[in-house]
Model the fold of this input.
Amino acid sequence: MSYATQMLDTYPRTFNIDAGLLASTIDALTDCAQACTADADDDLSEQNVAELVKCIRLCMDCADICTTTAGVISRQTDYDANVTRTMLDACAATCKSSGDECEQHAMMHGHCRVCAEACRRCERACRDLMAAMK
Amino acid sequence: MSYATQMLDTYPRTFNIDAGLLASTIDALTDCAQACTADADDDLSEQNVAELVKCIRLCMDCADICTTTAGVISRQTDYDANVTRTMLDACAATCKSSGDECEQHAMMHGHCRVCAEACRRCERACRDLMAAMK
Amino acid sequence: MSYATQMLDTYPRTFNIDAGLLASTIDALTDCAQACTADADDDLSEQNVAELVKCIRLCMDCADICTTTAGVISRQTDYDANVTRTMLDACAATCKSSGDECEQHAMMHGHCRVCAEACRRCERACRDLMAAMK
Amino acid sequence: MSYATQMLDTYPRTFNIDAGLLASTIDALTDCAQACTADADDDLSEQNVAELVKCIRLCMDCADICTTTAGVISRQTDYDANVTRTMLDACAATCKSSGDECEQHAMMHGHCRVCAEACRRCERACRDLMAAMK
Done:
């Protein structure tokens, strides 16, 4: 059981969103942040680093944005729909860009393949949570 | 001259956006992140902390989002319009929420007054940069 | 299999540290960051929030420091021992402080009990990795 | 007057450290974080990016660590000496490594020269604050 789930299980108030969906989105965000942080570094270790500059840049953005989004949706106290919705939108857009770019290098680099998969999963999780908020 | 300006002055390529506008937006984001980090802590030191919970929560979100947005717009290499635009939108929305809440406490707490002003300035800066991108 | 493990499995170079130990430390850091982010928010939702101010403050520090440390040790390219060692030291010290404080509230608040456990596990992981680096 | 100064001026309690020294350290940390974020990106835009990999990596660490340290020392509520001291130590060590590396490229790249200067100034600020804490 992930810490996201354990922490939601012990939250002192009720919340308006399904706890299972919220926890799985937090986990997808944390996973994607980790994959992107590592992938940017893996790219820096590749001999063809000059061809991976766009991938490095987008993974840096995506890692920061996923970490920030995980923080925002983990905070349930005095929930603000405008903050949550626009951050999920930014995060989904970034996961899309980062996932598209990583996919370009998936055949050549195993780390980009794994990272692309994490980005796709996270993009879907953000969109599912946005849909559930409506 | 701020470091945002100095670093943009030494950037090796050209960029499509006015450097002065970009630098002043980065500075507004960094200022707002600092104001929100400090304001959340100031609130925790107030005797009426229970009435400031919403302010603390929004300031935590706003600090993280401003720092992340500053990083995204500081990266000019292989610029991605979807990432930049949606992050500026999320940041403006959060500065709005955080600024509105801080303003509620501005008469009673000087730190909330200063923070509200930083949030307003940052919201405007994000919206101006979005307008210039079109 | 965690993303930390998957990404280390596809890293293009060799590294001097045991990959299993490194991956489990990254996972402990990510878990602790999530637990601390959520616990600070849970505390804000409690009626006795004024008694939890120290816990909130330390959890905020601990969340930021764990996330930053996870980033530092995830980057294996051009590894710098001074950066890694001092960050692990700061992270272990912070997990100790945060874990001690959360433990004070563990009987009263389930979220503090879960968070204390995450802090203890993360402190141990940081110390084990430091020991393995020598 | 920087926001660090304005926010410390409106802090509701007293603190044990000189406010001017604290504010100038926060400003040095924020400046260094900005310089390192931009320098990593500038390096990615250079034709000899493969020779700048170590610089990119250290600037990424340094940006994250400076931002986290600025947060830690901005929080004065329930100050914890172990957290503050070990983070300042980690930050000074990282600014040293990052400053040394940037200096290697200062003749060739103006952005590395500016960034090296920000790292040196931040390292000194962290060490001065540590000395004042004793």
